[in-house]
């Protein structure tokens, strides 16, 4: 018999705000997070706008007292995982058998780039020791599982723009068919860094509406001029309905 799957926790970070309440309030008001890029000098490039995250910090979260060891893309996901788990009210025992399903396209690209730069311009001994575990796309799900003691299946989907929805779908299927009772799932992306943005500029598919960044994202408009990049992450806690009901959860 197929199981009923419910959402018992969630969290988001995006260019229009970090945290469910902040994000939703901005979305309802129609606020736009697309601005001129501040994290590097964009003036040489055809596209100089993107959605950057500016209000996220891990400093107040006890699991991450060494936040710099995590790649930026993992920091987004770890923040969301922390708050989604809290909203769901899951115990360490319940997490010990839960699954982790994360979608990401490029993973820790900036961290790998930094290592390549050290290799080609200095000496291989200058490569940071944690480059491998910071750079691999699957390391995000691993960081989450380690940080929160999530002991069930651990899976990463890297399939371009559908990575996150596939990860959520995979988690849903596992609970639907009775293989899991709880799963943490979602996606995270860190694309606003100079090299990859320059590569997208060369592809000539991004908006160049640099003078009016808040009007640059127009996917369904006749006069649209291209896509817009942005960083962000979103995490859901999926749970089998009877399992959630038995522990008295207030379903999202």
Structural overview:
A six-stranded mixed β-sheet has the order 2-1-8-7-5-6, with helices on both faces. A two-stranded antiparallel ribbon has the order 3-4. The chain starts with a strand and ends in a 6-residue tail after the last helix. The protein has helices at residues 20-28, 72-88, 92-95, 109-121, 131-135, 139-148, 163-176, 194-203, 241-246, and strands at residues 5-14, 17-18, 34-36, 49-51, 99-103, 154-157, 182-189, 232-240. The longest helix is centred in the N-terminal third of the chain and has 17 residues, at 72-88. Helices cover 35% and strands 17% of the residues. The radius of gyration is 19 Å and the shape is globular. It has one domain: Peroxisomal Thiolase, Chain A, domain 1, CATH 3.40.47.
Essential attributes:
alpha/beta, two-stranded antiparallel sheet, 8 strands, six-stranded mixed beta sheet, 252 residues, Peroxisomal Thiolase, Chain A, domain 1, globular
Could you describe the largest sheet, including whether it forms a barrel?
Answer: 6 strands, mixed
Q: Tell me the quaternary state.
A: single chain
Count of DSSP-assigned helices: 9
Q: Any low-confidence stretches, pLDDT <50, length ≥5?
A: none
CATH superfamily: Thiolase/Chalcone synthase
CATH class category label: Alpha Beta
List the helices and strands and how they pair.
Elements: E1 5-14, E2 17-18, H1 20-28, E3 34-36, E4 49-51, H2 72-88, H3 92-95, E5 99-103, H4 109-121, H5 131-135, H6 139-148, E6 154-157, H7 163-176, E7 182-189, H8 194-203, E8 232-240, H9 241-246
Parallel strand pairs: 5-6, 5-7
Antiparallel strand pairs: 1-2, 1-8, 3-4, 7-8
């Amino acid at each position: 018999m197929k199981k009923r799957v419910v959402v018992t926790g969630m969290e988001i970070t995006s260019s229009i705000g970090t945290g469910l309440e902040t994000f939703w309030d901005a979305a309802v008001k129609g606020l736009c997070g697309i601005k001129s890029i501040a994290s590097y000098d964009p003036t040489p490039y055809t596209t100089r706008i993107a959605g950057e995250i500016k209000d996220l910090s891990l400093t107040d979260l006890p699991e991450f007292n060494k936040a710099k060891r995590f790649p930026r893309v993992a920091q987004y996901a770890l923040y969301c995982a922390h708050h989604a788990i809290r909203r769901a009210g899951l115990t360490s025992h319940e997490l010990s058998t839960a699954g982790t399903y994360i979608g990401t396209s490029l993973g820790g690209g900036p961290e790998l780039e930094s290592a390549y730069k050290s290799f080609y311009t200095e000496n291989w001994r200058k490569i940071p020791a944690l480059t491998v575990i910071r750079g691999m796309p699957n390391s995000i799900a691993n960081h989450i599982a380690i940080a929160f003691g999530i002991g069930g299946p651990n899976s990463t989907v890297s399939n371009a723009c559908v990575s996150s929805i596939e990860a959520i779908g995979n988690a849903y299927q596992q609970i639907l068919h009775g293989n899991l009772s709880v799963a943490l799932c979602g996606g995270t992306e860190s694309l606003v860094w100079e090299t990859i943005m320059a590569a997208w500029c060369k592809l000539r598919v991004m908006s160049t509406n640099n003078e009016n960044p808040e009007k640059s994202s127009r996917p369904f408009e006749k006069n649209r001029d291209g896509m817009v990049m942005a960083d962000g992450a979103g995490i859901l806690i999926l749970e089998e309905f009877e399992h959630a009901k038995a522990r008295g959860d207030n379903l999202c």
